What we know:
Blueprint: H1 6-21, H2 29-44, H3 48-78, H4 85-131, H5 147-162, H6 172-180, H7 193-201, H8 208-241, H9 248-279, H10 297-303, H11 306-321, H12 324-334, H13 342-368, H14 372-390, H15 392-401, H16 409-431, H17 435-447, H18 451-458, H19 465-488, H20 493-496, H21 502-519
Helix pairs in contact: 1-2, 2-6, 3-4, 3-5, 3-6, 4-5, 6-7, 8-9, 8-19, 8-21, 9-16, 9-17, 11-13, 12-13, 13-14, 14-16, 16-17
Amino acid sequence: MSYTTFAFALFVCVTVAVYYLFPVKKYQWTVLLAASYFFYCFAAWRYVFFILFSTFTIWLAGLYLQKLAEKQKATIKAHRKEWSKDEKKVYKKKMHSKLVAILAITLIVNFGILGFLKYYNFMAGGLNQLFGGDPLPILQLFLPLGISFYTFQATGYLIDVYRETIQAEKNPIKFALFISFFPQIIQGPISQFAQLGEQLFTPHRPEYARFKYGLELILWGVFKKLIIADRAAVLINTVTADYTAYTGTTLFATALLYALQLYADFSAGIDISRGIAKILGIDMVLNFRQPYFSKSINEYWRRWHITLGVWMKNYIFYSLAMSDGFLNMSRKLKNTKFGQTKAGAHFAKVFPTSIASFIVFLAVGVWHGANSRYIAFGVWNGLIIMISILLKPVFEKMLAALRINAASFGWRLFQMIRTFILVLVGYYFDIGPNFKGAMDMMHLSIVDQHARAGIHEMLNLGLGEKDFAAILFGMIVIWVISIRLEKTGIETPGELIGKRRAWVQWVLLFLAVVVIITLGRYGPGYDPAEFVYMQF
Length: 536
């Protein structure tokens, strides 16, 4: 049941109607739970065991962690006059070991399932190639729908309970809704319990403003998906299926088109998800903020798939950067002869942070999929960020020496173009069949430029001139709206027109529907492209 099908639209309408007409407001959230499991079972009933297993094990572990933490506090309070400092320390250490053991076991089991299903065949194939023969069998494995997203969301909740930043949810049925909430199960955003949990369980009444803004978000998502993403996917899939048959010009144009298609596709799915939630009275977190306006790779990753970046920062980066091992590394470097110099002091200060950042982006690459190209994608981004952190003083000196005004429009434009080029290199690892294929495509994009032949090729890849005109039109609309959003700091296009008269807003909504109906790719015989991030 794709987001852009009539069946899904009907499902959402029925869910919204039942949700707001439900007579017992206290249990209104049960409608969302029923709808979420209906949606999941309809899309992938064979895999429902996996989401149930993750839900139950993490809910149970969360309760047990909280119970142990409360027991520890109560015991220390009861013996505060009897125990010495050393006795308290021994008891705390013993309890800490228990808490860590429960957390580690639960995380290993849940990430182990994800890792086995997603990466076993990749690792088995690599080992078989390395040692020769077939010591490890290649299995017919499947990847449950949304497993990466709900595993990250569930484990983030468990770590927050362990850190005592939230209270464990006592009701397993409510917790099941948090994990399975249907607008986000396919491709996120990855929500935190503190932000989303209470909203799901609080009764809501229909509101005109929420309905309008939600509908605008949905239409904005459908516009990007049907007019841009699904069209561009036709050409991209054709070229990448046999990249050696095309000129470097076509390959370079395909990479550029992929940058547009990926953004239009992923952000469209998130907009539709957030729009549905908005209509239901629930605010989901922003996941994109004009990423191609970024002036550095660091900034790009703060604007692209924001919730994944927040998850990685909260649960991997800080855990590494603030660990005893990394802090000791910094101290040891600082105490060396090199560490006493100005450059050495900076290096000692940021080296652990840069290593932690590299590991985070390696994890991001691995998260994207079981293929050498995704690992290369993570390594590429990690190295760029690592180098930018380590050499920051050098770059600042170069800027001063060249007398460049860092606040000037020209410099900021240069930074955006430079960042986009670095991002585009990473995208080759997305569209290549493997690491070697991605490198070949990059090489051909540079040395095999034939403009006229490339244009001729692209017009014979399943898209006509009208299709390219529609993509260009959609790109211009995105670009103009993105500039307005960037300048105003507003999150959504709907808020841009929100202060206009009501009739103007509804006329614009009507025009958006007309444009989608006129230019969108849909209808009998048309197979809509799956959202790119569904595969992750």
